[in-house]
Amino acid sequence: MSIQVENLVHIYDKGMPSEQLALDNVSFEAEDGQLVGIIGHTGSGKSTLLQHLNGLLRPHSGKVIVGGVDITQPGVPMVQIRKKIGLVFQYPEYQLFEETVAKDVAFGPKNLGLSEEEIAERVREAIELVGLDYEEVAERSPFDLSGGQKRRVAIAGVVAMRPEVLILDEPTAGLDPKAHQDVLKMVQEVHERTGNITILVSHNMADIARLCDKVVVIDSGKLVAVGTPYEVFSQKDQLREVGLELPPVTQFTETLREKGIELDSTILDVDTAVSQIAKYLKKEK
Ligand SMILES: Nc1ncnc2c1ncn2[C@@H]1O[C@H](COP(=O)(O)OP(=O)(O)OP(=O)(O)O)[C@@H](O)[C@H]1O
Ligand SMILES: [Mg+2]
To answer: What is the number of the ligand closest to the CA of 17?
Structure first.
């Protein structure tokens, strides 16, 4: 399974005074097993892009090819596409509505027309996959859970559909630091367990640098950079121009480098920064 986005253009309110070019000729690819991060300033078009990946929005022009099928073509069965591509919206917990966690997670699989046993198995598996204790939460009201737990239940509802591609729009937005780390760890675990494509929008550059195989940068609907975290975060002037920061550890080591301290460029993790700084200090003695 792979996804190819080719020259995608999206225009909101076409022909009206409020017309807005939200995606302007965006192309990139996601390959099997990749964790892809999408970054960009607020209003840059990230959520618009995600909604094209499972056919929720139709483009003005361009293609979205999922597993060899161009899903922008008329006649493509959208039910099949939505089965393959699970999209977790921003603040998905607002969409929880059932009286128990188990029922809420079962909602998607039920719509797939699966047997009761299959649904029950998937619900249990998804709840555990997102790091919750099935026995503890299954019969509770989702509304009695903490913010981080609610978020996990909402994600479990999509995971239970066993999508081939899991897309998450800012899954850590608004969570406290502990819940933030927990949800990220969970995303990483689900990604590793399934071995599928995961696509993640985040404003947190440290998370993107640490987790992703590939980073896509958009600004005002245009693709400005795509590559490995190293390739993307090496382009620091370009990132600054579009209002994005480097990950904090990279900012720190780049500042040291500007002051003449010899370190590798574009260090993306704290361990490497520590060992390089220690090496430098030893040499200076
Ligand atoms: N339903 C809509 N109707 C009209 N314009 C829209 C609609 N949704 C988004 N837009 C506009 O399209 C542009 C891209 O919006 P989008 O929500 O995709 O950005 P984003 O990168 O997800 O932003 P954020 O980081 O704030 O979530 C913005 O200018 C926005 O105002
Ligand atoms: Mg958005």
So the answer is: 1
Find the 41 Cα to ligand 2 centroid distance in Å.
9
Label residue 6 exposed, middle or buried (CB < 10 Å: 0-12, 13-18, 19+): middle
Q: Is 10 in the pocket of ligand 1 (CB under 6 A)?
A: no
Q: Is the CB of 115 under 6 A from ligand 1?
A: no
Given a contact cutoff of 8 angstroms between Cβ atoms, the answer to whether 134 and 128 are in contact is yes
Q: Which residue has the tokens 């690819």?
A: 29
What is the total count of domains within the chain? Answer: 1
116-129 and 101-111 helices cross at what angle (nearest 10)?
A: 120
Pairing of strands 61-66, 69-70: antiparallel
Residues 6+ apart with CB under 8 A from 159: 86, 126, 129, 130, 166, 190
* Single pTM value for the model: 0.94
Nearest residue CA, atom 17 of ligand 1? 47
Minimum CA distance residue for ligand 1 atom 26? 42
The residue segments making up the domain with residue 238 are 3-246
The residue nearest atom 28 of ligand 1, judged by CA position, is 43
Determine the distance from the C-alpha atom of residue 261 to the mean position of all C-alpha atoms in its chain, rounded to a whole number: 35
Q: Residue 170 maps to which CATH number?
A: 3.40.50.300
Which of 48, 200, 216 has most ligand 1 atoms within 8 Å of its beta carbon, as the pocket-test mutant?
A: 48
The overall average pLDDT reported for the chain is 94
Query: pLDDT, tens digit, for every residue of 215-243?
Result: 999 999 999 999 999 999 999 999 999 99
